[in-house]
Amino acid sequence: MPQPDHVSALPIGDPARLDDDLKAVYAKCVEKLGFVPNVLQAYSLRPQKLRNFIAMYNELMLGPSGLSKLEREMVAVVVSAANRCYYCLVAHGQAVRKLSGDPELGEMMVMNYRVAKLDRRQRAMLDFAWTLTTTPHEIGDAHRAGLREVGLAAEDIFDLAETVAFFNLSNRMAYGLDMMPNRDYHRLDR
Amino acid sequence: MPQPDHVSALPIGDPARLDDDLKAVYAKCVEKLGFVPNVLQAYSLRPQKLRNFIAMYNELMLGPSGLSKLEREMVAVVVSAANRCYYCLVAHGQAVRKLSGDPELGEMMVMNYRVAKLDRRQRAMLDFAWTLTTTPHEIGDAHRAGLREVGLAAEDIFDLAETVAFFNLSNRMAYGLDMMPNRDYHRLDR
Amino acid sequence: MPQPDHVSALPIGDPARLDDDLKAVYAKCVEKLGFVPNVLQAYSLRPQKLRNFIAMYNELMLGPSGLSKLEREMVAVVVSAANRCYYCLVAHGQAVRKLSGDPELGEMMVMNYRVAKLDRRQRAMLDFAWTLTTTPHEIGDAHRAGLREVGLAAEDIFDLAETVAFFNLSNRMAYGLDMMPNRDYHRLDR
Amino acid sequence: MPQPDHVSALPIGDPARLDDDLKAVYAKCVEKLGFVPNVLQAYSLRPQKLRNFIAMYNELMLGPSGLSKLEREMVAVVVSAANRCYYCLVAHGQAVRKLSGDPELGEMMVMNYRVAKLDRRQRAMLDFAWTLTTTPHEIGDAHRAGLREVGLAAEDIFDLAETVAFFNLSNRMAYGLDMMPNRDYHRLDR
Amino acid sequence: MPQPDHVSALPIGDPARLDDDLKAVYAKCVEKLGFVPNVLQAYSLRPQKLRNFIAMYNELMLGPSGLSKLEREMVAVVVSAANRCYYCLVAHGQAVRKLSGDPELGEMMVMNYRVAKLDRRQRAMLDFAWTLTTTPHEIGDAHRAGLREVGLAAEDIFDLAETVAFFNLSNRMAYGLDMMPNRDYHRLDR
Amino acid sequence: MPQPDHVSALPIGDPARLDDDLKAVYAKCVEKLGFVPNVLQAYSLRPQKLRNFIAMYNELMLGPSGLSKLEREMVAVVVSAANRCYYCLVAHGQAVRKLSGDPELGEMMVMNYRVAKLDRRQRAMLDFAWTLTTTPHEIGDAHRAGLREVGLAAEDIFDLAETVAFFNLSNRMAYGLDMMPNRDYHRLDR
Description:
Chain A is an all-alpha fold. Chain A has helices at residues 20-33, 38-43, 47-62, 69-82, 86-100, 103-111, 120-134, 141-149, 154-177. The first copy, chain A, is globular and about 50 Å long. The mean pLDDT of chain A is 96. Chains A and B meet through helix 3 and helix 9 of A and helix 3 and helix 9 of B.
């Protein structure tokens, strides 16, 4: 498959010269996914920052939480849709397709999450994600009360807020560096 | 001094039950600042996330970079002004006052950075921060070329983008949890 | 395949009672596509309006024009992305995939057309589509001059403007009636 | 009366060379209005598209509907006010003055429909028109339920949505081609 | 002629109990215009504020200035169009019609000033008025330089800025109090 | 203390040539504040306009009203925060600090008034100020009813609206002329 024009608008680190712990991360990606996600390659220009990014990402998206992994990915896509971030929509849209086994759900998250038939809990989470992304000053106690009402514990609200916050970070890294996603995502889990 | 009404809208971790590494962070804060920043207390509800947040923050704001610490703080305040984030404006506005020795500069960053008489490099950095925060889809090659023209190396552009991105994260954590800053900041470095 | 929850929030016409010309349209759709697009079913509540819609659509998207059919579909998707219209993104995103043979191009049009590597002519057309959709009062002589410069004749500019205008109509019909697209589109041409 | 500087930024068709059916339309306009509306002249660059536009327009604005002709014109003006479309405000503002016999009502529709003392049905229709024009993603079941509550049947909601949608089309044709309205409208029905 | 439903959402002062200087203003209005503008009646709830408003208004709109009275009225209408202020559009739209003898010019200022064929000086003034009203933070030295280039002296720029500023005040008074204009304006100078 | 780079982008009047009444105003400012506020110096380019500005300002901010002086200053700062007006935030932020004796309250008004713990009356006033500034067309009877409910008399609503309106004027004068505030404000009342 032809590779994309670029990984990042900035130079990327030479994989052969990375520290061993980062080489191990790359190797694990190739083993599990078949490729190294371009975001890691783009971040490798600044290895310590790459290390911190991976640590935060893994805890956030893969660590223990009252939010399911699918819910976290749905939030990731809705935030990225609000910001129209190509990289994250491609990569996390695929994750929603894979974790849900429902390609339409992935498309809905990308295009307009409001058309999806969701339970009240998930709808409330995604509305919160949209508002905290686009007009954060509108978030108030009523929103947190609404989340509690549909069953979120304090830790869940924390995890939801951090997921929204993190993708507002990563969307802006993708725009700031013009990161392009690996083409491999497109055909997966259709 | 009376303490603020709350640190966070969510419960916070009991300082006495934190792991030793986090206790050490708290102790160091008290030693250096005289208090534990409320953002750390708010994050302590989720200790591993607190650890990751601290690691990313320290590398970003205190680690080696072509951007001076003052420049990073100026970016932090301009992002937080765009998002009207009270917590970060209070905490990082103080940092600008302290690092610059110029209280007016701090006020300008908080209120409207465009009135400040800055050199072209700093003005370009802050314009980039504003645009990447408020309308990230407008960022393109021309903006990165503009940054190179005023002397930023690739690593500097990376660090600038990550600073903007990080405060878009932390502003949303502050809104999502309704974090209030320690009152101690207000009177410092006026 | 299970059918979507609804075609439209309003009742739809009984296919068995449609006039013969409209029955013929339905039959032709089944023959060519395998299904009747839900937009036609939704419009069948008002048969004369359906007739007019089909006539305008067919001339616009399939009739003779200096814009290729793929270009017209790309414009359709970019307008629908600006308006976040699920129906039109699903249906015309598939058309871009099919006509271009390039599924990634379809995704780029849906998610953020600015990341696509396009020639100047197509980029100018899509920029015009975005601006005429989102901030029409900004369109002026300079935009039309820019289109002429990349080779558009007067008739091409007309056709481009009408394509943009038409999908601003159809996006609002989809929102106004809560039209849902046929599920068949999702798996086609991946 | 001196004629406007231009009808359209693009060339217009030679009236003498139009097909007979279009010549008949022009003749009927002159008979009824005293002039050929510039929108038709502008569209005559693409005669088949002109034909389709006329068919859709006539059914929409003059055909049978649960919405009165005045109500349809009021919607046309409110949509055009949201988009600040000079052509449509001039032409349909006159239509509101004529059909209502109330020049102030025409002005209110042009300037700010919210100041008009309308019954609940008309106010709900115009609020729907404004929202579907400016923030279509906010339209949901509650809006349609609100329209039913003030007496609109399913067909009426369809006709309302299509009127809003159509003027979002025609406003963008006017902007895209820089159409100027016939000066004749200005003094009529004051 | 029937009077409007209300002058203001708040009570208005009793004309018979006004101080003599304000009675004289009312009398002069009746003599010159045939009626007392509703804005004065609305302001009479607070007589000293009415006095100050009249003084500022008269100097601004009728006093000596490098801007013609027509130009000041054009600015008034463009600001009021940006804010969609019914009261000021009605009252000052009429003033533009009267001072210019060109009813179409009045309509253009109300509906979309960009369609008017103006000289560079007037176009620059109106662009400045639009930007200072809608996105004041974008005004910079380049805008003032642009005004000087088309012939405005420092005093003219001052007067232009104050006209824009004043109608941003009066538009908000009209909204804040729900002031309705005298119906008499509608038929004048058509 | 070093003086700011400029008072205004336009020339200012020579203090020695001002009329006696304006000289007296300047003298009183020096007596009471220790300096002449730059807004007065900037306005002195047009002495009669300066006179009218002072008259309106003094009545509004210092005259009898159901709104306390602190409340009027809080409104001034919230309007200026919405418009991001450096001059007015500096000058009136200091006034809030002084009148309230609470520097944090001043910061909250500047940065994000929604974080302040206010009684219902003050919160309603500031919400009204924000809405009338940023989206005046949304103000309706419900907002005025809300103000009456928290105890505002008709005259108080008038005064509130005029305070909001006036700072929308003065913010635009500051932007239009690029007025810079006296540096003296920064250190006062911290």
